Amino acid sequence: MPGVVIVGACQAGAQTAVSLRELGYEGTVTLVGAEPSSPYARPPLSKAYLAGAATAESLSLRNASFYEAQRIDLVLGDRVVDVDLDGGCATTDSGRRLPFDRLALTTGARVMRLPVPGADLDGVLYLRDLADADRLAALLPAARSVVVVGGGFIGLEAAAVCRAKGKDVTVVEMLPRLVARAVAPEVSAFYQQAHERRGTRVCLGRTVTEIVGQEGVSGVRLDDGSELPADLVLVGIGVRPRVELAEQMGLELRQGAVVVDQCARTSDPRVVAAGDCTLLPHPLDPGVMVRLESVQNAVDQAKAAAASLLGLEQPYCSVPWFWSDQDDLKLQIAGLSTGYEEVVVRGEPDSERFSALYYRAGRLIAIDCVNRTADYLFVRRLLGAGGTLPADLVSDADVPLKSLVDV
Questions:
Q1: Alpha carbons 34 and 75: distance in angstroms, whole number
Q2: Nearest Cα to 275, choosing from 251, 252, 291, 254?
Q3: Where are the domains of the chain?
Q4: Which residue, 59, 67, 135, 187, is the most exposed by fewest CB within 10 angstroms?
Q5: How far, CA to CA in Å, does 293 sit from each of 30, 284, 404?
Q6: Same fold, 3-110+239-309 and 113-235
Q7: H helices of 127-235, where?
Q8: Contact, 379 vs 401, CB < 8 A?
């Protein structure tokens, strides 16, 4: 009997399936994934998993018996390549036909490839899935020099692990500062200095023009003509949503992603979408469309998608949050700082324990916390309640933020 087909066995896909059962859906639920592994957590790949502190088993979101008990059919190692919406059938690469009367797209994103000569040499790696992480972990012990192309969160997390394993690490970032799209200049400067203190070289405002080597990598040539020695090159220059199926079905796309509303509904009422493949209304400011690549977004948006599949309305309006572990630096972010007009630093960055609070039109919109979990937890709750803090009083790290709410 036709039921729900969920295309993409990722965090969002697994949560959609689980939420359908939690909401009382009794029909068939089929979760289809191109990878051979059952759904697993991706964030640890560049942190604990690469460091050897987590196993593939520990990354699994649920064990096999859970899916069996919940009557969630897993189709793994097989990618959906065609969807006939009118006929209610999805076809996989192997020719398997999956009938449905409701469809969810949780197709995620793919890594952007480095478009330079030599990018196909052995030793040029990416880090998006478990196979990528396993390959990097296998090659890392024999490497002496690692060049990380891209100074975003994935690149910096992996750079920290490689450096902790005794490798000579260089991070190359084309923009003038690290994680420039996500944090204020003050936070970027802190991360540059923190990584350099630990022995990582940081090259800003430089682009890679060629990967040098014969059969394998031996170096990286930059746009200023200099060459960096490298046994391994890890590329982390961003991702692009997987939208081939959405495009085939004629769904509305914008900024290269599937457009959805607060209830995860696409432009076609028969289809919902969730996770990294979507462009969605800002959870706290629905008039602004954003792309969010995080576990929190995948989970909360998937819950809204499951409800919509059942004709219910559960708008996604949770405070966005995110974290990044780099060595002993724990960054926790609550809210979205996009469009901020003022940033107030609370505490001393050199102590490696501080917060950055972002304001727009006099109201608090986000916070970045480095090793200040109490600040993060309080502001996350505050933003969820629609509250704010006075910008002129938050810089004193000795004054608890909660004491300022009624000021």
A1: 8
A2: 291
A3: 3-110+239-309, 113-235, 328-404
A4: 135
A5: 24, 16, 32
A6: yes
A7: 130-139, 153-164, 185-197
A8: yes
d(CA 333, CA 323): 6
AA identity, residue 228 = L
> Residue 148 is encoded by which pair of tokens?
């990380």
Rounded CA-CA distance 141/143 in Å is 6
Q: CATH classification of 3-110+239-309, choosing from 1.10.3720.10, 3.30.70.270, 3.40.50.10960, 3.50.50.60?
A: 3.50.50.60
Residue from 322, 136, 341 nearest 236 by CA:
136
E strands, 8-138, are 29-33, 72-76, 80-84, 89-92, 97-105, 109-111, 124-126
Give the whole-angstrom CA distance, residue 260 versus residue 243.
13
Taking Cα atoms as reference points, which of 174, 167, 238, 161 lies closest to residue 205?
174
Neighbours of 101 (CB within 10 A): 14
Going by C-alpha positions, the residue among 245, 242, 277, 244 that lies closest to residue 259 is: 277
* Protein fold of 113-235: FAD/NAD(P)-binding domain (3.50.50)
Residue 407's pLDDT is what?
46
Helix (H, G, I), strand (E, B) or coil at 277: coil
Assigned CATH topology for domain 328-404: Enolase-like; domain 1 (3.30.390)
- Of the chain, the end-to-end C-alpha distance in Å amounts to 60
State the 10-residue block means of pLDDT for the chain, 407 residues long: 92 98 97 97 96 96 96 97 96 97 97 97 97 97 97 97 97 98 97 98 98 95 97 97 97 98 97 98 92 96 98 95 96 96 97 98 97 98 96 96 81
> What are the phi and psi torsion angles at 43 (to 5°)?
-50, -40
Q: Are 278 and 308 in contact (CB under 8 A)?
A: no
Q: pLDDT tens-digit profile of 210-267? A: 999 998 999 999 999 999 999 999 999 999 999 999 999 999 999 999 999 999 999 9
Strands 271-273, 97-105: pairing kind: parallel
Give the 3-state secondary structure percentages of the chain, helix then strand then coil, rounded to 5: 25, 35, 40
- For residue 404 the two structure tokens come to 């300022």
Q: How far apart, in whole angstroms, are the C-alpha atoms of residue 352 and residue 294? A: 24
pLDDT of residue 207: 97
Q: Supply the pLDDT for residue 292.
A: 96
